[in-house]
From TrEMBL:
This is Cell density-dependent motility repressor. The gene is qseD_2. It comes from the Bacteria.
Length: 113
């Protein structure tokens, strides 16, 4: 942000954590200049331009048994999965990735919004 100020005087910015669909709509409508988002194929094409800032990873995590071993085996075709709802932004990204890599399918017990 500091370097942007050097190019054009005062740089005014506002940070708001909102639904990604709403953020993309405000970008399309010209109500915002940029958003910071996880990689999303919808944002990797015209009319948008992107710049990769960093990479992040999601890790499957589960409880350990008395010997310190995972209670569930991620190599099994089904494991209990605490998952995001299919309509949420993270749910769409995670489910798309699992489908692409032929990953685990979850016996969903609880969903996060």
């Amino acid at each position: 942000m500091h370097s942007l100020t050097a190019y054009g005087g005062e740089f005014v910015y506002h940070v708001e954590a909102i639904d990604v669909v709403q953020a993309v709509n405000t970008l399309r409508e010209g109500k915002s200049d940029f958003i910071i988002s996880f990689r999303d194929e919808d944002l990797m094409q015209s009319p948008f331009c992107c710049l990769k800032l960093f990479e992040s990873e999601l890790y499957p995590v589960c409880a350990a048994d008395a010997q310190g071993h995972p209670v569930f085996d991620i190599t099994q075709p089904q494991v209990p999965l605490l998952n995001y709802t299919a309509t949420s932004y993270m749910g769409r990204l995670v489910n798309r990735h699992l489908a692409e890599v032929g990953g685990i399918t979850g016996a969903r017990y609880l969903s996060l919004r």
